[in-house]
Amino acid sequence: MLKVGLERAKQAADHAGDQWKAAAYQAFVQYAREHKAFTTEEVRKANPTLPAAPDQRAWGHIAKSAERAEIVEAVGFKRAQSSNGRVSVLWGSTLI
């Protein structure tokens, strides 16, 4: 199941395009330089000028890419402010 979700996130990011992926990754890394713990939703909200991805799952690919690059690590979970309070990964920055 997790593998399917990761593949769908990658497909969503690929659909968003290389420029969006680069800008979103840059925004994610910059946020990690300034915040010890955060959710992907918080990164999105802090970057209102970044065009929205056609599918929000694209952000999952960005977060997992940052995790593979050892920019962040999963440190827990937090309820999202949007989407009826679903549980989201709480990312811990390794840059601080």
TL;DR?
The chain is of the alpha+beta class. The chain has helices at about 1-15, 20-35, 40-45, 60-70, and strands at about 35-40, 70-80, 85-95.
What can you see in these coordinates?
- A hairpin with a 7-residue loop joins strand 2 (72-79) and strand 3 (87-93).
- The protein is globular and about 30 Å long.
- It contains 4 helices and 3 strands.
- The mean pLDDT is 91.
- Strands 1-3-2 form a 3-stranded antiparallel beta sheet.
- It is of the alpha+beta class.
Features:
4 helices, three-stranded antiparallel β-sheet, alpha+beta, 96 residues, 18% strand
SSE layout:
Blueprint: H1 2-16, H2 18-34, E1 37-38, H3 40-46, H4 58-68, E2 72-79, E3 87-93
Antiparallel strand pairs: 1-3, 2-3
